[in-house]
Design goal:
With about 240 residues, the chain is mainly alpha-helical. The protein has 6 helices and no strands. The longest helix is centred in the middle third of the chain and has 39 residues, at about 90-130. The radius of gyration is 24 Å and the shape is elongated.
Length: about 240
């Protein structure tokens, strides 16, 4: 039989530390009545936490309705593995699939949020650098959009083609580069304010990597493109 993965992490990190809210992975063939009991106990704890509006430090909910619902599905899956298909209702398989899709979407949203939080400090330091208030380098924000994009304008890519080292960066198969990735050293970047700024082509390469146009439109000259890249690097 399939076994069970470890119970998924909570949006509230404090809940990840509470034993009765979490259960371990169970190997294939290892789901038995003891596991069913543990999953039933966990489900009841989470449903109770949601129904009574339990919160932890900072007023953050101990668990969400979606997380309690996931525990209900997990418990039903454990029962099905012990009792066989006869105990699983007809809608069970579709419900599990839908719940898994929702959990995947939630995990993706949490990753995007993590990237946005990381970029807040990057944008702040970059703004100080562009104002010449620090001697620090211009920092690379992380991606918050998965995959590669396209250059904002076709003529930003050299007619002779992309240099081999840069082409190798763009050769990664989908869905790479994922959220939280930063431009690798092979990709030219605006390292310091007093350094040579990126060329039109280099701005285009960064746009491809970030899957972002930076707001560049037809008719923008090089200085306008640099200005829009600067806005992107400070989060405007």
């Amino acid at each position: 039989m399939a076994g069970l993965q470890a119970s998924p992490a909570f949006a509230n990190p404090v809940s990840n530390l509470v034993d009765q809210y979490n259960t371990n992975a169970v190997p294939a063939g290892g789901v038995d009545e003891v596991v069913v009991y543990a999953e039933e106990r966990r489900k009841n704890e989470l449903v109770n936490a949601v129904d009574k509006g339990f919160v932890s430090v900072g007023g953050v909910a101990t668990a969400t309705a979606a997380e309690a619902g996931s525990a209900i599905v997990r418990g039903a899956e454990a029962v099905a593995q012990v009792g066989g298909a006869a105990v699983a209702p007809p809608w069970f398989a579709a419900w599990v699939a839908n719940d898994n899709n929702q959990m995947t979407a939630l995990a993706n949203q949490m990753t995007i949020l993590q990237g946005q939080v990381y970029n807040v400090s990057v944008f702040h330091r970059n703004e100080l650098a562009f104002r010449s208030l620090t001697d620090g380098p211009i920092q690379r924000p992380c991606k918050t959009i998965v995959g590669f994009g396209q250059a904002p304008l076709p003529d930003m890519i050299p007619a002779g083609g992309v240099p081999a080292a840069i082409a190798a960066v763009f050769a990664a198969p989908p869905p790479a580069p994922g959220i939280l990735a930063v431009p690798p050293p092979a990709l030219p970047f605006w390292e310091f304010l007093n350094a040579e700024p990126p060329t039109r082509a280099e701005i285009g390469y960064l746009a491809i990597f970030y899957n972002h146009t930076f707001g560049i439109v037809a008719g923008d000259n090089h200085q306008e493109q640099l200005s829009k890249l600067r806005f992107f690097l400070i989060g405007v």
